[in-house]
Design goal:
Pfam families: DUF3562 (PF12085). This is DUF3562 domain-containing protein. InterPro entries: DUF3562 (IPR021945). The chain has 61 residues and is mainly alpha-helical. The protein is built from three helices and no strands. The chain has one domain. The radius of gyration is 11 Å and the shape is globular. The chain starts with 5 loop residues before the first helix and ends with a helix.
Length: 61
């Protein structure tokens, strides 16, 4: 299964939440580092991180 392109994921979140790409990118990187620490299997992490960033952004509004 092909991994989604991180830039595409960040862009989609930014558009969906009306948030600057730079903010989403920083949040994505922070969340990624939180959940990927020590994980050997990272295939599911893109989806998990994207979900958490969306939730974080929606809870701000």
């Amino acid at each position: 299964m092909a991994q989604p392109n991180v830039e595409d994921v960040v862009y989609a979140i930014a558009v969906d939440t009306n948030t600057p790409i730079e903010v989403v990118s920083e949040m994505y990187a922070e969340r990624w580092s939180e959940v990927s620490d020590g994980d050997r299997i990272t295939g599911y992490l893109t989806v998990l991180v994207a979900k958490r960033v969306r939730e974080d952004l929606r809870s701000r509004h």
